[in-house]
Design goal:
Layout (H helix, E strand, L loop, with lengths): L1 H51 L8 H8 L6 E4 L5 E5 L3 H6 L3 H10 L5 E4 L7 E6 L3 H66 L8 H20 L7 E4 H14 L5 E6 L7 E4 L1 H19 L3 E10 L2 E8 L6 H4 L17 H12 L3 E8 L3 E9 L2
Parallel strand pairs: 6-8
Antiparallel strand pairs: 1-2, 1-4, 3-4, 5-7, 8-9, 9-11, 10-11
Helix pairs in contact: 1-2, 1-5, 5-6, 7-8, 8-10
Length: 383
């Protein structure tokens, strides 16, 4: 699926580049052609204007027609000193009311096209200059590729987002299906183990091992319950976050090496309530604590900091382990990513799904420095 998405992106980019490149080349060809025709029209207009000043011409219908047919090309006539003597197709209201408007337009036209020079028919020692601009058609042809580029770019963005959404949806369905299937597969042997534990309770020979065995079976039931809730909408309950975290820290502490120090900071607050799914929330904290243990390789410290902040509960899990390299920080929550020799790389991915989709919160790497440790932050809404 990922390779197909990449191929789609490549194909779309190639098509877009081909379309835009072809359009730009063709539009530039049209622009040059229109610009050439416009210059010819301006030259004809100048010739017609000059012919009206010639007393030998008796039929002035053609010159008048050429002059009157120019409705859209702005022209400013100047003498050889660039003093303005005439203009056409400019805003008459602005010419009358806005000081310096004609001079501004002259400077603008001077930068667009080289002027057409014509010897004054009355005084051959003088040369008139005619500065002109472009028609709206030429401007549309020139700017069309930019508009098309914007449209094609938006099309590509929408298509890629749709494909990415489809890919993520499929990916989520795969992980959710795998989780539910795991829960289903665990259900039967766990139920059988629970039955055997009840049978063993009646035998005094197993009295000492029954409590520990029950804990392990209950643990398996909890794991099965967690996986079963992935892919469905879990029931959120008002839960004491501080108590839940203390219980999980105590559970992990008993299974951690003796050289790992684990502490919880609540800043004097004894209880913070939030609506969570207890099994899934515990799973997130457990994943973070286990990742911290794996990162420290047998020694160091883990600090869990819990505090309120503007209606939210912020939980920081900081370790003194090996840290995460900058290139991997954005990858740690992706399914399948792991730096361990053994592992599926699903713990943090499922944790993000639990916090963001089920609890509408956030989970991210707050800080990490190779060789010094990592801090993960979980943010959920306070009840």
């Amino acid at each position: 699926m990922l390779s197909q998405l990449i191929n789609w992106r490549t194909g779309l980019a190639a098509i877009a580049i081909a379309i835009v490149s072809g359009t730009i080349v063709y539009s530039q060809y049209l622009a040059r052609k229109i610009a050439g025709e416009e210059r010819v029209k301006v030259e004809q207009w100048v010739e017609a204007s000059m012919s009206l000043l010639n007393p030998d011409i008796t039929d002035i219908r053609l010159p008048f027609k050429i002059i009157s047919d120019n409705h859209d090309i702005p022209i400013i006539e100047t003498n050889e000193k660039d003093s303005i003597t005439n203009y056409v197709n400019l805003d008459s209201a602005k010419v009358a009311n806005k000081e310096g408007y004609l001079r501004q337009q002259l400077e603008k036209l001077r930068g667009i096209n080289p002027p057409i020079e014509y010897v004054d028919p009355i005084d051959s020692t003088k040369v008139n200059r005619y500065y002109y601009g472009h028609t709206s058609l030429l401007n549309e042809v020139r700017y069309y590729p930019l508009i098309q580029l914007l449209i094609v770019g938006l099309f590509i963005i929408v298509t890629v987002l749709a494909l990415r959404g489809s890919y993520r949806s499929t990916q989520n369905q795969v992980w959710a299906g795998m989780a539910k299937e795991t829960a289903h597969q665990l259900g039967t042997p766990v139920s059988s183990l629970e039955g055997w534990v009840e049978v063993m309770r009646e035998d005094e020979r197993y009295r000492d091992i029954i409590p520990e065995l029950s804990k392990d079976v209950n643990r398996l039931r909890l794991v099965s319950d967690r996986f079963g809730k992935i892919g469905s909408s879990p029931q959120l309950e008002e839960t004491d976050i501080i108590q839940a975290i203390f219980q999980m820290v105590d559970y992990i502490r008993k299974r951690a090496p003796g050289k790992v120090l684990m502490t919880v900071h609540t800043h004097g607050v004894e209880s913070i309530k939030a609506k969570v799914s207890p099994p899934l929330f515990d799973w997130v904290i457990e994943n973070l604590l286990k990742n911290a243990l794996d990162a420290m390789e047998g020694k160091g410290s883990i600090d869990v900091d819990i505090r309120r902040n503007k209606g939210e509960v912020q939980i920081d899990v900081a370790d003194t382990g090996k840290g995460i390299s900058a290139k991997n920080i954005n990858r740690v929550f992706k399914p399948g990513f792991t730096t361990k020799k053994r592992g599926w790389g699903l713990g943090l991915s499922l944790s993000r799904r639990i916090i963001e989709q089920y609890h509408k919160g956030e989970i991210f790497v707050k800080h990490s420095e190779p060789g010094k440790g990592t801090t993960f932050r979980v943010v959920i809404r306070e009840a």
